[in-house]
Amino acid sequence: MNDSKPFTPTPKRIAIRGGRVIDPARDIDEVRDLFIEGPFVADDRELSSVDEEIDARGMIVSPGFIDLHVTLGEPGYEEDETTRTGTAAAVRGGFTSICVLPSTDPVVDNRAGAEFVKLEAARAGLCEVYPIGAVTRRLEGRELADIGQLVEAGAVAFSDADRPIANAEIMRRSLQYTGMFDRPIFHRAIVPELIANGVMHEGELSTLLGLTGMPRAAEEIMVARDIALAELTGGRVHLMSLASGSCVDLVRRAKARGLGITADVTPHHLTLTDEQFRSFDSVYKVNPPLRTQTDIDALIAGLVDGTIDAISSDHRPQAAEKMSGELDQDPYGVVGLETLLGVCATHLVGPGHLNWSQLLARLTVGPANILNNSSKASLSPGSEADVTIIDPAAEWMVDPKTFRSKSRNTPFAGWKLTGQVKQTIVRGELLFDVAWNGIRPTGR
């Protein structure tokens, strides 16, 4: 692979010809041309000539994907991922914007931490990167972080990443404070005492395999608590990575009451079950855990009816040396930026659970609404020219050796998928093309 392709500026005016433009924010799904002028989508009536044309016949042209929670290793865990490798993985996967969790060393719990995230993203020059600020100092769950300063530094949301905020009073105060700035708290809603040292879903199989289980109740209790606190405070809680089907109905009822509750789900929780643990492979070890087919069915139903707002990769890279120990000692997490579209196209659109417009809504307008950033989720004239071009018929195999991510901990290695990102454009610059053998540096 060659990442050193010489950079030449993308032409200022681009015509994307003959693609199936799907813009869920405007309920558009039709074959048409799309025009870009500089960093913005252009009105074709005002564009008399173009500098470059992209043939998108047979392709889907979508607003750029947005991932609500990604873990990058910089600073402190560069052996897992760097800003450069993580954003390269993002644009290869069709993501033009990612939100980065604060679980670095040092933690992003002050202005300097958030500014560092933005600075490193600017140096990488690939997708847009938005910092998520810590709710509590050092993610310890005891003392609120510098929330006001983090907002001023560009934090789009707040989270203690993989650490649940167990103290209800801390969560209440956090919601009151972040509510002043209209920022959501992204929460890993699970009771830590009920999952301590857990490896997999608690059930008959965990008993049979002799592995410590993580019960559904751990999610149900915390989700119910968060809903109650959102109602009490008027704050916004975004539930990351729902895995329990029973929680979908809790969220559905909370939304029916007009509460500030949103949720996302990951591709691995939509396609994999606890049966994978018969292999005793730690690549399936995630938090919350892979549950059962019954849970998957409920999660898909939540996507279909809009109860679940978004699909996120929950990209959590782990260096190979960290994944080579005992199952109960290996860390949680999988990489997912580069496989999300293919997995979802194959296993959600392929069987007819979702159509393309529904899937793309969960990758664009759904996340953008949570972030209050509608300009990132539409192809209307004047919007930022973040565009993902998809070949819905392309067949490919997941080969971790080709990943742009620095880590390889994927549960989808060897899977044959249908549906692939062909090109990714960020603010009018073509940064990824499947025909290239590399990611184009922008020099921004």
Characterize this entry briefly:
By secondary structure, the chain is of the alpha/beta class. The protein has 13 helices and 18 strands.
3D structure, described in words:
The chain has 444 residues and is an alpha/beta fold. The chain folds into two domains: 13-61 and 384-433, Urease, subunit C, domain 1 (Roll); 64-376, Metal-dependent hydrolases (TIM Barrel), CATH 3.20.20. 28% of the residues lie in helices and 22% in strands. It contains 13 helices and 18 strands. The chain has helices at residues 83-92, 111-124, 147-152, 168-179, 192-195, 204-209, 216-233, 245-256, 267-271, 293-304, 340-349, 356-363, 365-370; strands at 13-23, 28-37, 40-42, 52-55, 60-63, 65-70, 95-100, 128-133, 157-158, 185-187, 200-201, 213-214, 237-239, 261-265, 310-311, 387-397, 416-426, 429-433. The strands form four sheets. Strands 1, 2, 3, 4, 5, 16, 17 and 18 form an eight-stranded mixed sheet that branches. The chain has a four-stranded parallel sheet with strand order 6-7-8-9. Helix 1 links the parallel strand 6 and strand 7 (95-100). Helix 4 (168-179) crosses helix 7 and helix 8 packs parallel to helix 10.
